[in-house]
Amino acid sequence: MWNDVRQLADRIGTRRIEDLFDNANRAQEFSLHAAGMLLDYSKTQFDDQIRAALVAVAQQAGVESRREEMFGGARINETEGRAVLHTALRNLDGGPVLVDDADVMPAVMETLKRMEAVADGIRASDATDVVNIGIGGSDLGPKMATIALSPYHDGPRCHFVSNVDGADISDVLRRCDPATTVFIVASKTFTTIETMNNAQTAKDWLAHHGVSDEGRFVALSSNAEKAAEWGIPGEKVLGFEDWVGGRYSVWGPIGLTLMVAIGAEAFRAFLRGAQEMDRHFRAAPLHQNMPVLLALVGLFHNQVLGHATRAVLPYDNRLARLPAYLQQLEMESNGKGVSMDGQPLEVSSGPVVWGEPGTNGQHAFYQLIHQGTRTVPCEFLVGAAGHEGDLRHHQDLLVANCLAQSEALMKGRSMDEAREILRAKGLEGAELERQAAHRVFPGNRPSTTLVYPLLTPEVLGRIIALYEHRVFVEGVILGINSYDQWGVELGKELATSLGPVVTGEVSSEGKDGSTRQLVEYVKLYR
Ligand code: F6P
After folding, report:
1. Which residues are part of the catalytic machinery?
2. Assigned CATH for 87-270
3. Could you tell me the pTM of the whole model?
4. What is the location of CATH 1.10.1390 in the chain?
5. Pocket around ligand 1: residues whose beta carbon is below 6 Å from it?
6. Which tens digit of pLDDT belongs to each residue from 15-64?
């Protein structure tokens, strides 16, 4: 399947990306407009043949039929026997969605209304602070989106506690008043150790301050039984089905804290934005399909050219948590070593995803991106406008920096250009040669840029849905199940068995020498 693409890639040789712009229409031919956003992938080695060969790979892998299966409620999460229907959560006016011949939409809309009633209730109450207790998908999505949409906040202050490290909850509770704080316990399973410990600590904190916990906890979970056992009654539980994966769950009850922060109307706008991207993804032909193209660029860099990481670089400070969110979305989904049929994967698993907002990253790790010996494909995101209308010059500088980075990565600076600059400063001879070498930028480093009008709830919805579908396409082409996460289990099991070893209730005998040594050191200082 990959042969054609690999052969074409072999022929790239020393070709410079910037020379591809001899085609005056390249920028337009290697860009896409969808849902009001522009994806420019022209600063890559893509040419007509490579793109066509990759689209053929997507076709052969069955992306189109799999896409229909996903939207249609088929159980494409085969190792867990589940449908994958986060798209149903934002299907505000898209008609029925069937799972086993039953339409799930009435229940989805009913839950959305219940969420709105709960959120409105909290917003209208005397609550000053809301603390979301959850981890992984029950934290990263709502936290990333709540930070992203801070200009729309008109509710109580919202905090997020995820880490089992007591420092996390302590630092949050210190800022809250027990009399006016509401806790939202977000956990699909309602068994996650970190979340259950943090929730218990919150309960103890209320008791310690002589405040009743009645009515102060809301649960967001698929496991109403466990929530009830824990003491949260049914009317305070917002449930969702097993076909909503944790890292795809911000669109439903797990998004409650976001809804509390921005209100029900803005939350619906967030859903509408995602629905718009869903419609584009489902209908557009593969070669004009934004999530598909983003996936093909990613696969080309990762699978064909062998670049093991990709940097996500939002030039939008409020997207500070987007890289962390995408780490879970992409790496928990596509970090698999076994294909759908249980065979070892013959290709590499998905790449390492990392990043920080620009311009901060420029003053930290961009050195390696520009001059290091490894190529790091970069994905820039930037809003045409910012919310700070009175600080327009900041936005102008931000955009200029973003565009400058992709240009610099592509063009680089040759030895001759470096010499010229130094000669103008009066250097010559051996010293000029030595200094010039350090000022060479190899260039020819690929990047994509996604530009959107302004980071509104609607636009954020479109961006997140774009990445979700990109992960889907990459997963289908790799032949893996993007919707399970067995790789997180072993560590959880061992942590459970190591708990009593750390406290000293159980001896460390039988553990490896390294683990025993570490336990002994910890015990010395406890
Ligand atoms: O351990 C991984 C994981 O299962 C993630 O997939 C999930 O988002 C997270 O833990 C939290 O799970 P839960 O929502 O069930 O507490």
Report:
1. 332, 363, 492
2. 3.40.50.10490
3. 0.97
4. 487-524
5. 135-138, 187-189, 192, 195, 246-247, 332, 485, 488
6. 999 999 999 999 999 999 999 999 999 999 999 999 999 999 999 999 99
